[in-house]
Amino acid sequence: MAIRKIARMGHPVLLQVSEPVADPRSPEVAALLRDMEETLEDIEGLGIAAPQVYEPVRVVIFHAPLDDSVSFTSRDELRRTPLTRIINPEWEPIGDEQVERWESCFSVPGMRGRVRRPETIRYVGVTPEGKIIDRRVDGYHARVVQHEIDHLDGFLYPMRMDDMRTFMFETEFEHHRD
Ligand code: NI
């Protein structure tokens, strides 16, 4: 196990489309997941995608409730939920509702910005044990899933922002909110 360095915006690994995993139960995937978990714990993050630790493969982990039904609106609340490990994930919107919320990312350290995304989604993928994950979720859970899968397709949240006036340093946000 090892804590990995996090790739930051500007590194090409964050801009590429990651490769699907052929065997989700392989020892290589298990080893990568252990490193990602240790790294996520170290940075006290909500989720992390494999390209963020310089591995362009379709693997993400994030904290999320295990059932479909619970809405979360805060980051801290969500971080207390179990860890989901998902390989080759895909998602689709359910309904037309879109909501704008603050996002941040360890690959864009010290910053935050508002991003509009579908509020309710279905996502599917495979666990490292080879089980299917198939969940309908909303709120912050749905947002984290979209943010992490975006990393697998070479998107960072600033590329999703409508209004760059909301792209700001965390410290300025703390000083000037409300
Ligand atoms: Ni991120």
**CATH class designation:** Alpha Beta
Strand order of the largest sheet: 1-2-3-6-7
Average pLDDT figure: 93
CATH topology: Peptide Deformylase
Structural class: alpha+beta
Shape-level CATH architecture = Alpha-Beta Complex
N- to C-terminal distance: 43 Å
Topology readout:
Blueprint: H1 27-43, E1 47-49, E2 59-63, H2 75-79, E3 83-93, E4 98-103, E5 111-118, E6 120-126, E7 132-138, H3 139-152, E8 168-169, H4 170-176
Antiparallel strand pairs: 1-2, 2-3, 3-6, 4-5, 5-8, 6-7
Bound molecules: nickel (II) ion.
Give a nutshell description of this structure.
With 178 residues, the chain is an alpha+beta fold. Helix content is 24%, strand content 28%. Nickel (II) ion binds at residues 105, 107, 147, 151.
Question: How does this structure look, described?
Answer:
The protein contains four helices and eight strands. The protein is of the alpha+beta class. Helices cover 24% and strands 28% of the residues. A hairpin with a 5-residue loop joins strand 6 (120-126) and strand 7. It is globular, with a radius of gyration of 16 Å. The protein has a single domain (12-176), classed as Peptide Deformylase (Alpha-Beta Complex), CATH 3.90.45. The strands form two sheets. It has a five-stranded antiparallel beta sheet with strand order 1-2-3-6-7. The longest helix has 17 residues, at 27-43. It has helices at residues 27-43, 75-79, 139-152, 170-176, and strands spanning 47-49, 59-63, 83-93, 98-103, 111-118, 120-126, 132-138, 168-169. The model has no long low-confidence stretch (mean pLDDT 93). The structure holds nickel (II) ion (NI). Nickel (II) ion binds at residues 105, 107, 147, 151.
